[in-house]
Amino acid sequence: MSSDPPDPVARAATLRPLLAEHAAEADRGSVLSPQVVEAVREAGLFRLEVPAELGGWGASMRTQSEVLVELARACPSTAWLVGLNTSSTRLALRTYGDEVFRENPDVLLSSVGNSRSTARAVDGGYVLTGRGGFASGCEIADRVLFWGVPLADSTTTRVSFSFPAKEITVDRTWDFAGMRGTGSHTACVDELFVPDECASVATFDPGARTFANMPKPQHVLKSIAIALPVFVGATHGALDLVRDLLPAKPISDTVYRQAVDSPSARLWFAEAQHLLDTAYQHLWLVADECDDAPEDDVMAIEDRVRVRLHMSSAISGCRTALSKILDLAGASAFATGNPLQRFWRDFEVGTRHARFNPFIALEDAGQLLAGGSPVATMI
């Protein structure tokens, strides 16, 4: 890691000019540039979750969120991949131990959670075949994680795998309107042998109605909560651009040669800033609740629902703030060369991730308030 500055949040802030310079390139090519990947690695931001004794930061969720906000103010896709790497590292350490991170604390992981794959047991390990979509960063990753793959001829066993990324082929299926730089393509393997030490077996527990040794609900919750700062940061990045624009931009067909001279424009901007400030408060609460969550016992459903509601509130506030920001910028914000439209596309696509679902979070909260137990949520 670079020796200056020592704080990971400060390091992330110093990367913003480089990330902004390469953001359009990542958007066009659906992959981060090598310069960005190397700079993030050199800054030590792939080792946020790695324990200090292994050469990492051992950073709290709060600190990780602060880092991701800084990155997202320039490039939400970069922030997404750094955040996903922290959650993948957390799960990999629990599942496979620390050997990989002892060898390389800067390892970049790509996770596949819902693959169309099967595995069969053989002497010394397993043979894995299949495809896993939405494998963010799979083209630039060092290792790939396939989670919960069904074992052939068994309805009660799932196996998770960790193996070098060089073993996959990539089907470049990630052709979405936003978050394009995440390169969330499809990772494919065909008759890949994975040794026992790189596999983790989970067997269905009928009493608990779940698979033993699989991540607990709060671990899954953390894996999506770490994406929340990406979209708060994206909103902040858009606000930064408009703040610089207002003194120079006239308001057409009015007496205002500078938008900043308009009381209503200043009010619009103040409301956007306040909504962003409020979203930050929701974000810090989510981060602190995740930091306080139990590691081994299951986090109470009431606490998980409350966290998800605060996530929804943060996103809702940012969406309204971003709309006001775009109002102030006008139609020119949607020119393909204007970074504002990229922040907008990234926000609107990324916040539609299934685990950010706002109406299910509200449904569960209402069920709890009525004295029942939520039945819709699995996290």
Structural summary, described in words:
- The model has no long low-confidence stretch (mean pLDDT 94).
- Helices cover 47% and strands 16% of the residues.
- α4 (61-72) runs parallel beside α8.
- It has helices at residues 8-14, 16-29, 34-42, 61-72, 76-96, 99-103, 217-225, 228-245, 263-292, 301-329, 339-350, 358-369, and strands at 109-112, 115-122, 125-135, 143-150, 157-164, 169-171, 185-195, 199-205, 210-211.
- A five-stranded mixed beta sheet has the order 1-4-5-8-9, covered by helices on one side. A four-stranded antiparallel beta sheet has the order 2-3-7-6, with no helix packed on it.
- It starts with 7 loop residues before the first helix and ends in a 10-residue tail after the last helix.
- It folds into three domains: 8-108, Acyl-CoA dehydrogenase/oxidase, N-terminal domain (Butyryl-Coa Dehydrogenase, subunit A, domain 1); 110-211, Butyryl-CoA Dehydrogenase, subunit A, domain 2; 217-369, Butyryl-CoA Dehydrogenase, subunit A, domain 3 (Up-down Bundle).
- It contains twelve helices and nine strands.
- The longest helix is centred in the last third of the chain and has 30 residues, at 263-292.
- With 379 residues, the protein is α+β, with helices and mostly antiparallel strands.
